[in-house]
User: What shape does this take?
Amino acid sequence: MNKKVYLTISNNVSHEIVIKKSRFICSLSRIHSEDDAKQFIKQVSNANRKANHNCFAYMVGDDDHIQRESDNGEPSGTAGVPILESLQLTHVHDVCAVVTRYFGGIKLGAGGLIRAYSNVTSEALHEAGLVQRVKQAILQIEVPYSLHDQLLYFLKEQQIEIANEEYGVQVTTNIFVNDDDITSVIDNLNNQFHGQLLITEAGHRFNEIPYQE
Assistant: This one.
C-alpha cells in the first residue's frame, strides 16, 4: 500500500451479540491483499461449519479499490452491505469482517437483519480499536564524532525519533521521519551542520499511533 497515512484496526477480534436467540459473531482481521481476505473468510467459515450464514465484507488496496461483500444466503442487501457500510463509516482500510449467524428460530425481518449485521460489526470495530499507520522513511546520517552530541541535541529538540546508532570511523545515526517531512528535515540538518553530514534514505516502515475520534 502506498498510502502515507491511513486507519486500520489495532487488533484482530471476535465480538458476539445475541438478538432474539440468534447469535451474530463478527470476526475482524487486518489484511494486505484480496488473497488474505479470502483465506480469512475460509478460515472463519470452516470454524463455523454449523452456522446458518457466514456473511462478509472487506476493503483492500490503495483508495480501497477492492471492495467485496456477500449476504451468504441471507436476503439480498441485509448482511453484506451493512457490514461493508460499517467498515466505510469507520474509515478503516485493509480490513476483512466476517459475521457468522447461528439462527435462533425467530425471524428478524429485513430491517432487523440490517441492524444486527451493522451493529455487531460496529461494536467489533470499537472493541478492536483503531490505529493510524504513518509511513516513515529511515534516514541514515553519518556524523563525525565531534558533531555527534550536537546532532543528538538537535534531534531531541526537533522531537525526531532515533532508530539506532552504529559506531565506526564515524557515527551512523538512523532516524525515523514521516514521508511528508523528509525534504524539510534533510534541509534543516544540512543547514544546521553546514553540509558536514552524509544523509541517505535506508528504507521505510509504518509507525502505528493509537487513534481517538
Observations:
- The two ends are 23 Å apart (CA to CA).
- Helices lie at 34-47, 80-90, 109-128, 145-157, 182-192.
- The mean pLDDT is 95.
- Residues 179 and 204 are 9 Å apart (CA to CA).
